[in-house]
Design goal:
Elements: H1 15-22, E1 49-55, H2 59-62, H3 66-76, E2 81-87, H4 91-99, E3 118-122, H5 129-138, E4 154-158, E5 174-176, H6 181-196, H7 201-211, E6 215-216, E7 221-226, E8 229-235, E9 273-276, E10 278-279, H8 289-293, E11 298-299, H9 302-316, E12 320-324, H10 334-345, E13 351-353, H11 361-369, E14 378-383, H12 387-392, H13 399-411, E15 416-423, H14 430-445, H15 448-451, E16 456-463, H16 480-497, E17 502-506, H17 509-519, H18 526-534, H19 548-557, H20 562-566, H21 586-601
Parallel strand pairs: 1-2, 1-3, 3-4, 4-5, 9-12, 12-13, 14-15, 15-16, 16-17
Antiparallel strand pairs: 5-6, 7-8, 10-11
Helix pairs in contact: 3-6, 5-18, 9-10, 11-13, 14-16, 18-19
Length: 611
């Protein structure tokens, strides 16, 4: 028990109102009731620090996010800290909350969000920003940091978007850059210690900014501009650092991992034992932010992976073990790992799941190794349909290796394929786009050599979004009509081939334009995000909720054009809105960019495998 908790906040528990006025009127109450197997519920009044962990999407998506589960576990392992969950209520639930003036609450205690000491957001995409503002608003809080008071929670955010966070900077008190397992514990301990000294919220933020090189507090920094360009980035408080580093976990074997993840009440997107087997990626795909930001490469030992998988299985009952990483095929002892997992789980009806795999020598070996892997389908991120484009994006897959790997998969019992392609690469031609269809068609027909059947192939086509911290950040995104024409080229070729066994799914072009416009933006885009939120934008990642016109209007009201912003080309000597945020060295990225453009302009094309 805790005899002298630092926390003196009065916490409003809303259980009675939630049970009577909210749950009977929403479509799926299981999203909001909490109480699941393995949830952690503490006495909030007895804890020195209370943290509400927010994932700005639905329960089903949030409960599938491994990072959130890890942070929940790390904080709740501290005896004087309570961490509870809150997610974005869907539109029907939000309507009930607003009509009945019920403040947003956490799942564990049904405690009002505004009464917590800290609210922490996981940011995984630019299209979640309006949901962040909506959660703050539903909690009864001012959305801008400058408008909140000392009695309000500190608003903290982390995740992949923290490394390019300026469009969200005026709304967030502190960003955690990099890997958060140890960082959140250090920050929690600092806040508890300073609360004992009755330190103000602003001074706590200042101490964090001075103490941790992964802690970015936007209110302590100023930008000056020269037209569209950034002129300078300087601290408003003398002595503060102007360059930040990612928090990095040195050893995956010793980092905390939940022994008993929460088992959702309603079906989540992924219900499985998820074990991270490595961090970082030896590949450097030039469009991929994670491959350049998440370094160095670290491996978890086979013994530790087995221990995690066994423990989580016995504490959850999930029937699949998923091996997670940016590039699972690059785990050095993958064959041995799969054999040992199979030996343990083979009589328990538990399958082993592998994420999207690279086509290389290891992938050729996988089908004969993974007898316990569920064979509903094999996923391969090809990204580009020709070898030259793959050289440009620095993903050097050979057609010959691709066909060899898929043939081996068919022989091992796989009946379906899922392929990922991206359109909009530099140097791309209409023939490259059409080849997405002809290549997929040949891979489908390849199965005929095994069992005289044509494979069903699901092909997802996305549109290149130039991402911060990547070599392609300097590119202008292709215009909207380019992507629309590319989509039509693909569909026309499919009709021409009468390939009903090819099932294409296309990302929303307007969403990709918005990602580009926001993702490479600076702090001057914050009013755009705020305006879009106030005009009804939310769940922008969901096609049924996304309204492109709201965002177009928001850009126009703020004196900008969305598509012009998306197609902005960045010059090598420009100061970038993320230059200070733990970026790889600009010269290194520019070398990649220069090499890519030289390949794109080269007349020497690799030989094309006859289909």
């Amino acid at each position: 028990m805790y005899n002298d908790p630092v926390n003196k906040k009065q916490v409003t528990i809303l259980t009675r109102r939630v049970d009577r006025e909210f749950l009977p009127f929403v479509r799926r109450p299981s999203r909001y009731i909490g109480g699941e197997i393995n949830q952690i519920k503490k006495d909030l009044a007895a804890c020195d620090l209370t943290v509400a962990l927010c994932f700005p999407d639905t329960y089903e998506v949030a409960m599938s996010h491994t990072g959130l589960a890890i942070i929940y576990d790390c904080l709740n392992k501290l005896p004087n800290v309570a961490a509870e969950r809150v997610f974005s209520p869907l539109l029907d639930a939000e309507q009930v909350l607003r009509q009945k003036q019920i403040p947003l609450f956490t799942l564990e205690s049904k405690a009002a969000l505004r009464n917590f000491d800290v609210i922490g957001f996981s940011l995984t995409t630019e299209l979640c920003y309006t949901n962040v503002l909506n959660i703050l608003d539903l909690a009864g809080l001012q959305i801008r940091s400058s408008d909140r008071t000392e009695d309000d929670p500190l608003i903290i955010a982390g995740g992949g978007m923290a490394n390019c966070c300026e469009p969200l900077a005026p709304f967030i008190d502190l960003f955690i850059l990099g890997e958060a397992e140890y960082a959140v514990v250090q920050l929690a301990q600092l806040i508890v210690a300073e609360k004992k000294n009755s330190t103000s919220g602003k001074d706590i933020l200042l101490k964090a900014a001075r103490q941790f090189d992964w802690a970015y507090v936007p209110q302590f920094y100023d930008f000056k501009y020269d037209g569209d360009k950034i002129k300078s980035f300087t601290p408003a408080v003398p002595g503060l650092r102007t360059e930040f580093k990612n928090a990095v976990v040195d050893c995956l074997d010793t980092v905390p991992v939940p022994a008993a993840p929460i088992v959702p009440f309603t079906q989540a997107v992924h219900e499985r034992v998820s074990v991270e087997i490595m961090r970082g990626c030896p590949g450097r795909c030039r469009f991929c932010q994670a491959s350049f930001c998440r370094r160095p490469i670290r491996y978890r030992s086979i013994d530790r992976i087995l221990d995690i998988a066994k423990t989580q299985y016995h504490n959850t009952g999930f029937d699949t073990v998923s091996l997670l990483s940016l590039s699972t095929a690059d785990y050095p002892d993958l064959e041995d790992l799969i054999d040992k997992l199979h030996d343990y789980f083979k009589d328990k009806h538990v399958g082993i799941s592998l994420p999207s795999l690279r086509v290389d020598r290891q992938l050729k070996l996988l089908p004969k190794l993974v007898t316990s892997v569920r064979k509903s389908g094999l996923t391969i991120a090809v990204e580009a349909a020709t070898e030259k484009l793959r050289q440009i994006i620095n993903k050097p897959i050979k057609d010959e290796d691709l066909f060899t790997a898929v043939e081996a998969a068919y022989k091992a019992g796989y009946q379906k394929l899922k392929l990922y392609f991206m359109v909009g690469h530099p140097g791309e031609t209409p023939e490259d786009i059409i080849r997405i269809v002809t290549l997929s068609d040949s891979l489908a027909k390849l199965r005929k050599t095994i069992d005289r059947k044509t494979a069903q192939i699901n092909i997802t086509v996305s549109w290149l979004v130039p991402k911060p911290h990547t070599p392609f950040a300097f590119l202008a995104q292709r215009p909207k009509d380019y992507f629309e024409n590319a989509k039509q080229l693909i569909l026309n070729e499919k009709r021409k081939l009468r390939a009903r066994y090819l099932h294409f799914k296309f990302h929303d072009i307007n969403q990709s334009l918005l990602e580009s416009a926001i993702g490479r933006g600076d702090r001057r885009l914050a009013p755009v995000v705020e305006t879009a939120f106030k005009n009804g934008a939310k769940f922008d990642l969901w096609s049924e909720s996304f309204d492109y016109s709201i965002w177009q209007d928001a850009f126009e009201k703020c004196g900008m054009n969305l598509e012009t912003q998306a197609q902005k080309k960045i010059e090598p000597d420009d100061t970038l809105p993320w230059d200070h945020l733990a970026t790889p060295r600009k010269q290194y990225l520019l070398k990649h960019f220069t090499d890519a453009m030289a390949t794109a302009e080269s007349k020497n094309n690799p030989p094309v495998l006859e289909l």
